[in-house]
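Q&A FORM
Asked by: J.P.
Topic: structure of MEKHLA domain-containing protein

PROVIDED:
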Amino acid sequence: MKWVVASYARWTGKALSDAGEEELPKVLYHAPFVLVSHGQEADPILCYGNQTALKLWEMNLSQFLETPSRYTAEPMHRDERAQLLERTTRYGFVDDYQGIRISASGARFRIHQATVWNVVDEMGVYQGQAAMFHEWTPLGQQVSVNL
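REPLIED BY: S.T.
REPLY: Here is the structure written out as tokens.
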């Protein structure tokens, strides 16, 4: 979590929260916005999701932490998602992303104005990517999910 928070500040010049270091994990977990991250595996696995993300994707924490991040998008939207992640890798962060995502039950939703950034450690070594967004719109269509 430390790298997610520090990397957000590094790329955007903003803080995810003004909470102190001790309170920060709890504040971010209970935040009214979505905060997620994945690692640097060849097929990146989600490694953090706050309470809002878990509710939106309709998963408990253990399910979420076993999910390849590509499964947060429907197969037909995965190329778009891959292009976003490539653009993020190239520029460090993007703050204008919109896209369609899918929950574990098949509920579809559009995310708006997401910020996606590279997570780096203290030495600047790439460790994965994270995303944060405040707004989403349910699309009212259920689809079958093959996670």
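FOLLOW-UP: The two ends are 26 Å apart (CA to CA).
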